[in-house]
Amino acid sequence: MASIILENACVEFPIYNARGRSIRRNLMARVGGSVAADGDVVSVNALKNINLRLTNGDRLGLLGHNGAGKSTLLRVLSGAYEPSSGTAEIEGAVSSLLDITMGMDPEMSGAENIVLRGAIIGMTIPEARERIPEIAEFAEIGDFLDLPMRTYSSGMNLRLAFAISTAIRPDILLMDELISVGDAAFASKARQRVQELIASAGILVLASHDPKSLLEYCTRGIVMEHGQIVFDGPIEEAIVRHGMEVPEIKKEVPAATGA
Amino acid sequence: MSLKPSSRDWQRAIADARQGLSAWHVWNLLAMTDIRQRYKRSRVGPFWITLSMAAFVGGIGLVYSTLFKQDIRTYLPYLAVNYVVWTLIQGIIMDATGVFSSSGVYLRQEAMPKTLFAMRLIMRNLIMFAHNIIIIPLVFLLFGVWPDWEMLLAIPGMIMLLVAAYPVVMLIGMISTRFRDTPVIIQNVLQIAFFLTPIMWKVDQLGAAAPFVVGLNPFAIFLRIVAEPMNGRAPSLWTWGVAILVIVLLYAITGPLFARLRARIVYWL
Fold first, then answer.
1. Among residues A169, A218, A216, A191, which one has the least CA distance to residue A54?
2. What pTM, to 2 d.p., does this model score?
3. What is the pLDDT of residues B221-247, one digit of tens each?
4. Which of A10, A54, A232, B57 falls 20 to 30 Å from B161 in CA-CA distance?
């Protein structure tokens, strides 16, 4: 059972400049008295008072211009950032396809990287080892499996990263734009895998600038501006509210099955 | 900002520590990867750790045994044991300054327990220690040192050192992530500590100042709790007592601080 409840969640980043981060500065401020009392810590409000409830079957599209807070919200939903005020309750296994190459090491072989990444995203080591052939086959890396990843072409790198990241079935799936990797043949295979992932996930949150993919995969949409939710409703209306046209496509959404 | 953690903070901190410990396969793998990666394209691989340790101990041993007018047959084994243990202590403390900042890629996008990275760091240093300790039996063999039963006391000593290392890594890690001057300060403290700790010299050479420099110096306490048994002497009750006191203090300080600041760590990266 997947669920996400955000209540008045705020994310406020303190920006310490070089001086603000030094102990000397801190000591001087305490000892010396009046010099620029906390004038050094500037903070950026990345998210302000976000209220959001998602349960099994929800397919949420995130819209907003660059810097509106979409990525930060995704990171809050993944549990990496805990709100600086307010609360975030996240239940269920989260898979965030935000940076699929995370934690991959160019000096290690493809096989070693599969085990490493696999362990980080929640597999046991025997399980990860067992899945090496299957993942390598999907990624089409062939004989390169046992060579260090620095010898891979950038396409192979991405294909392997994609194959590992999508090897588990999460309850909550977070994506920043639909991943597109590889040439036409691989892209269609990848697309199919993403669709399977989406279909089996309890909750999908997709941040995107592309109205077509939003319309295809999401039912509900929120529009963000300056770190706040300014609209929450059906995806079609959200697209219009964001100032885009709703494209004519037939929905071939794999119906939400729930986890 | 109040530094007092709420009950919710405590719950989450405890969950973090529990998950961090139970994901042993992850920190174990990450630690192995760290070592393997460092020596990936070298022929001798991780045994460079052993070789450089042997070179240092051999070189310093020759010079200082002459300088201190000590018999090299007793001085060099003494130095080897001390320096191997010191390298472990120093490695853990030095690495602790980057424990979170070097794991930013993970921490910024996955809800991974923060304590997992402390375990990875300790594990990595233990692997290095395992490579270094190889030289001890070799040195003992070379100089005809016969191990005593006291040597077994090094095991509880080692356990206490590791129990202390955990909060040390978390504490230094948090402070260094927030205040970026800390790593340099720690580096300097370690340099001074190296000379104030009986690694190259013996306690009795110090005379009247010994109780203050050695008896109250936490570096010396944790060094001696492991190194003394290996040198064939049981550590004094004082050493054990201070070690326990330091451990209690470390947990009493780090526990609440971690509970309160755990969620902020990612914001400071």
1. A218
2. 0.88
3. 999 999 999 998 899 999 999 999 999
4. B57
Residue owning tokens 């499996």? A145
Kindly state whether B245 is in contact with chain A, defined as any CB-CB distance less than 8 angstroms.
Answer: no
Nearest CA in chain B to A81: B266
What ipTM was predicted for this assembly? 0.81
How far, rounded to the nearest angstrom, does the alpha carbon of residue B251 sit from its chain's CA centroid? 16
Tokens found for residue A109: 């072989």
Distance CA A143, CA A168 (A): 24
Residues A57, A258 contacting (CB under 8 angstroms): yes
Beta strands A172-176 and A3-16, pairing class: unpaired
Question: pLDDT for A64-101, tens place per residue?
Answer: 988 888 989 999 999 999 998 899 999 988 988 888 88
Contact between A105 and B107 using a beta-carbon 8 Å cutoff: no
Place of tokens 């010099």: A35
Which of B8, B19, B33, B42 is the best residue to mutate to test the A interface, defined by the most A CB atoms within 10 Å of its own CB?
A: B33
The tokens for A179 are: 């991943």
Task: Using CA coordinates, name the residue in chain A closest to B261.
Answer: A84
**What letter would DSSP give residue B152?**
G
**B141-180 residues touching A, CB cutoff 8 A:** 178-180
- Residues of A in Cβ contact (< 8 Å) with B268: 14
Using the Cβ of B29 and the Cβ atoms of chain A, whether some distance falls under 8 Å is answered with yes
Do the beta carbons of residue A58 and residue A204 sit within 8 Å?
yes
Query: Which of the four pLDDT bands, split at 50, 70 and 90, describes residue B220?
Result: very high
pLDDT tens digit sequence for B118-161: 999 999 999 999 999 999 999 999 998 888 888 999 999 999 99
b/e map A175-191, b = 16+ CB within 10 Å: bbebbebbeeebeebbe
- The single residue listed with the structure tokens 């041993």 is B61
Going from the C-alpha of B89 to that of each of A18, B35, B121, B178, B223, the distances in angstroms are: 30, 17, 12, 23, 8
